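Quick illustration for those who missed Monday's session on complexes.
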Amino acid sequence: MNLKISLFLFSFCSILALNAQPYKQFTPGEIWKDNNGKHLNVHGGGILFHNGTYYWYGEHKVGGEIGNTAQVGVSCYSSKDLYNWKDEGIALKVNETDPASDIVKGCTLERPKVIYNAKTKKFVMWFHLELKGQGYDAARSAVAVSNNPAGPYIYLKSFRPNAGFWPVNVQPFHKKPVSSSVKSKYCGGKGCLPAPPDSLNILGRDFKGGQMARDMNLFVDDDGTAYHIYASEENSTLQISKLNDDYLSYSGQYFRLLTERYMEGVTLFKRNGKYYIIASDCTGWAPNAARSAVSDQIFGNWKELGNPAVGSDSELTFHSQSTYVLKVEGKKDCYIYIGDRWTPENHIDGRYIWLPLTFEGDAPKIHWKDAWSLD
Ligand code: GAL
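Prediction with beta-D-galactopyranose bound:
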């Protein structure tokens, strides 16, 4: 073989080795490369389907423990088939110049999700924001907007939900004066509070300033009404808030559910007219047994259904934490559980656990598969 041909073959093979695409299946927990041959960097993410394309948004991580804070922003990838993803760049950038910006580099920006507003024709991004240097105390929701699915997104504001509004299922005791300000020390989960949250009336404590909002998701119902679901009240309780028509703010109507159950990694989706939640327990980056719940109405009687994961390693949800449930377009009754396998010592190496989500009666089930495809 002459030198030119060998060189050509060598570079061709190297490119093939570098770039694993096209993929034809999901291999949960493995390195998953984008069109540039780089492991996807889209943690705590969510997916939007728009005009025949899927867009995957998530936390863009850098190497090392500093990756626990936002150094870059929100990444976006696009795909037609869900296996092969094209890097669309940074959809929302952190602010590198203005220390007063809510989203200054070094803030904590988690679990971004995007929905499309058909009335305003805007793509609306919500995420959980913690202000730089304040640990997890701020517990705010933040909103950004764009004319294009891949961005760039313009940062609008951050705030705590529903200041001055009571939930539709408020209890009389919540409205009694709150004696002292109960402060918790964030420890990522249970045991942060000196007593059960309702006995301390965390809801009432936060009535004026707005409710806490940490791990979160968005859901758009068939009638176009959008909802924000988030871990609130010191992570003890979920709240679902109805958004205004433009999806940019809260309507003041919200609902408390699964109170004092300490859920995170919360997802919300609909199947056959019923609403479902898949979430995690509250143990920080460490995996735990997932939770699930069903209700006939979104502001309704939510019934817990237990851990949807089945089989070996199900008690740790296959070493993953839920971040999104995707309904696959054009396939009947086809849902995908999407979870993160976090690596907090080096977040950039975090893996993605995509598994088929099936149903036994009402109950969602997730079984492990080394490799699988939509066929
Ligand atoms: C997890 C949560 C992540 C992040 C982390 C911080 O439980 O799901 O989004 O907030 O805690 O420790």
